[in-house]
Amino acid sequence: AQSVTQPDIHITVSEGASLELRCNYSYGATPYLFWYVQSPGQGLQLLLKYFSGDTLVQGIKGFEAEFKRSQSSFNLRKPSVHWSDAAEYFCAVAPSSGTASKLTFGTGTRLQVTL
Amino acid sequence: GAGVSQSPRYKVAKRGQDVALRCDPISGHVSLFWYQQALGQGPEFLTYFQNEAQLDKSGLPSDRFFAERPEGSVSTLKIQRTQQEDSAVYLCASSPGLAGFYNEQFFGPGTRLTVL
Fold first, then answer.
1. Percent with pLDDT over 70 in chain A
2. Which residue of A32, A46, A107 is in closest CB contact with B42?
3. Are A61 and A48 in contact (CB under 8 A)?
4. What does the alpha-carbon distance between residue B74 and residue B1 come to, in Å, rounded to a whole number?
5. A67 — phi, psi (to 5°)?
6. Under 8 Å between Cβ of A46 and B104
7. Distance (Å, rounded) from C-alpha B52 to C-alpha B69?
8. What average pLDDT does range A20-35 have in this prediction?
């Protein structure tokens, strides 16, 4: 069965510092890969997605992620974190077939930003 | 509305009560998903509709959970005889369902259910 692992439950970074959130997946074939952000009281917002092609994908709010097939990883990065980035971040996968597929999420990483 | 809306936003139920959670998807969206998010966990898939057809209900945890979308728009998730373990945030998502493309899911703010 497919699974997503986010090994870091909680990360604290200083504003302006760089950020990397880890995500590993277990899947029969390369799935579609996603990063979502969830702020308190808000719905999940899609940051970026990987379907195929260039393994470095750019997203909104200055985030990027790199797909590494050999490591089954899809880590999220940001060069300089802003205080408003404090939120919960979820990595997710979906089968790479079909047009409407359920998402399988990791357990999330809570990001705290210190000023 | 512009996005997915859910009501109520908060629901407190006594154990054994029945509850109904509503989802209004983005107008015209074909696909609708329900997810359950327990405290400190990621969302977990419950069920999926394409128009009014429930194509996948593999994630429903028990027969106390029932979902419907009778006219292919608004959906209701019903939980009968609620238990404490049902306490969670219930998220609804909709997507356009365009053939030939993966369709992004747009999430609502969720309904936080607390069972006492």
1. 97
2. A107
3. no
4. 13
5. -90, 125
6. yes
7. 5
8. 92
Task: Provide the phi-psi class of B100: left if phi over 0, else alpha when psi is between -120 and 50, else beta.
Answer: left
Q: Do B48 and B67 form a contact (C-beta atoms < 8 A)?
A: no
Contact A99 B103 (CB under 8 A): yes
Contact B68, B76 (CB under 8 A): yes
The residue of chain B with its CA nearest to that of A4 is B42
Which chain A residue shows the shortest CA-CA distance from B33? A102
Instruction: For B87-115, give the DSSP string.
Output: -EEEEEEEE---TTS----EE---EEEEE
Assess whether pLDDT exceeds 60 at residue A104: yes
Residue owning tokens 């609502």: B108
Q: What is the Cα–Cα distance from A90 to B36, expressed in whole angstroms?
A: 14
Tell me if B50 and A42 make a contact (CB, 8 A cut-off). Answer: no
Q: What is the pLDDT of residues B10-51, one digit of tens each?
A: 999 999 999 999 999 999 999 999 999 999 999 999 999 999
In the predicted model, what is the mean pLDDT of residues A85-99?
87
- What are the tens digits of pLDDT across the range B93-102? 999 876 556 7
Beta-bridged to residue B21, according to DSSP, are: B77
Any idea what DSSP says for residue A49? E
Helix, strand, or coil (residue A65): strand
